[in-house]
Structures are given as structure tokens and as C-alpha cells.
Design a protein that fits this description.
The protein has 167 residues and is mainly alpha-helical. The chain has one domain. 65% of the residues lie in helices and 2% in strands. A hairpin with a 5-residue loop joins strand 1 (2-3) and strand 2.
Length: 167
Amino acid sequence: MSHSASGTPTPVTPGAFGELPGVPEKDLDGPLPDLPPLPADPRWKTEHLGFLTAVSFLLLTCAASIGFLVSGPTAALAAAGGVLIVTVSHTLTTLVVAWADTVRPALVMPLGMLTYVVKYSLLGIILAVGVSSDWPGKKALGLGVVAGVVIWTAVQAWWVTRRTLRK
């Protein structure tokens, strides 16, 4: 039973699948269980983003320059776009996972997996359309994505190793 604003008990309506198995009706109105305490300083989950963003911007600039020198402005934009896709994708994943861990650690796995499914589906669509087209920048886009993934992963691994050794 729950209580209305006037204090009179109102029946708890079961959901679409009926009552919760093994949960007495009287427990449905009780307080939520205690959650584990939040970390004293949750900023460590995102502290690497500033450095990684700077490295990604440097890589984006290098990719655009190389693309321009090798094949012109279309390749420059495509290579920079590939690096940008990876940067946005990895930053989004980091922010979603950090937020989920701060709110409720049990959300990390489902939200992390959902984020990966969505971003890799979008990346797959982008690359599939790019490969099947006659667009002259498709090779540079693919190389930009590859360079972005390799550099982002290497720098993040270096950062985690450095942080772990510091502790």
C-alpha cells in the first residue's frame, strides 16, 4: 500500500508483469536500500580527457596537413574528420561511464555497453557508406580513424600506467 497526499492508503498496482517475485507488497513502499558511498574525488575518472583532447587536436592537425600534402583539401578534411570521429566517440564513452559510476556503479556495464553498441554501429554505417561511395576522401577518412584509434588507445594506456605507478 502507498499513501496519498491526504494520508489514506492506496493500493499498489502491479506492473505489466504482475508483482515483483519474492518482494512483499509492504516492502514496495519502504525506503530505497543504502547505496555505496561515492568516491571522495570522482574527477580522476575524467582527468585524462584534457591531455587526450590536446593530443587528439595535435593528431588532427597532423592528419589534415599530411592529407593536404598528399591529396589536397578533400583528403585533409577527411583525415581530420576521421580523427575527430574517434575523439568524440572516445570522449563520449568516457563521460558516460564516469557519470554512470558516479550516479550508481551498477549502471556502468549496461550504459557502457549501450554506448559502445551505438557508437560502433554509427561508425560502421559511416565507414560502410564511405567505402561504397566514389568519394575521393574515403581512404583518408579511414586512415584518420585508424590513426585516431591507435593514438588515443596508446596515450590512454600510457596515462593509466603512469597514474597507476604514481599510486
